[in-house]
Amino acid sequence: TVETNKFLLTADILLGLRNVLGYAESISATYQNLQYKSPRFHADVTVPYLFGTPFGVEGSFDLFKRDTAFVRVSFDAGVKYQLNATDYFKVSYQTFSNRLNYIDTNYVKANKRLPENLDISSKGALVEFYMDRTDYRLNPHKGWQGKVAASGLLRNVRTNDAILNLDDGSGFAYDRLYDSVNARKYQYRVTGAVNYYLSPLRNLVFKLGYSGGYMSGANLFLNELYQLGGFKMLRGFDEQSIYANQYHVGTVELRLLLSRNSYFYLFSDNAFIKSQYTGVSKEDYPVSFGGGITLENKSGIFNDPGKKAYLSARQATYKAVPDEGAQNTSVLFLVQSWGRGAVTLLVVAGLIVVAHQTDLDFRTGNGVRIP
Length: 371
Hints:
371 residues; Porin; mainly beta; 2 helices
């Protein structure tokens, strides 16, 4: 890692329960420690078709600790209306709470400005819509699927006594630093994703994907931005290591089908990232590429819905950090395995190339500049 200049062994633990109570409910919990002293806990609960109606309830909880800097807690609870077996419409209530563990008061005194992380709370409503027009949900050969979500939030920057009580003898009123950040309390966020599948040959599938997000606000802070990178988005980058208020990620993936639920694939993720917070404005174009294989086990993929399914995952990431100034590429070995009724997944994404590392604050990310 950058902090210790040593190898870091990371862990990703997933627990999943389905239909334990007989209501077709789904319960999942994840614990990750993929960055230096930065654990994350996430839990989801879904109960569909309440009282035999298309209505269901959903809830999620997320706790993220960023080393000694801050702790963020997010909560989402809402109602989902199932339009059919795959499509749904969802309305939910959201809250976000950021609390600082440490404030660099020397930075505040030297620059006469607020730090990049701050105590912030937001609450509001989210609307989400999802459609699936693929021929097979678990491993599509053709068709498309898309999701769009929009939220409106009431945002509040909380004052911190460590800043309010600063006195450097110059007579500067540090409490006045908060005057401008709370001028606009309303914020909206929009995210979307779409995937398109095409099969020109019997055992060959092309996947084209797009994911994007935008967060409004002229006085944003680092700890409230979107976090990107990792196995789900922008593969090959450190997990959740890229902070951005606007992102657009395009994916090209070629799959060679080995069976109905198994395939070998090559991928490339290409993105535009914009990061604006506390007077900082950065743009970059990260790129990653690699390959992997998805294998189905003998019990199939959730082929026993009448019984509860237990899922466990193990992940190990080994990353070499070269001397400063050396050309830096990243080799990622990722192994994940699911238990009964699921799949065994082996991914080896070798030679992950990251563009323009020096222009964008990737925090613990590693990469090289592409001319």
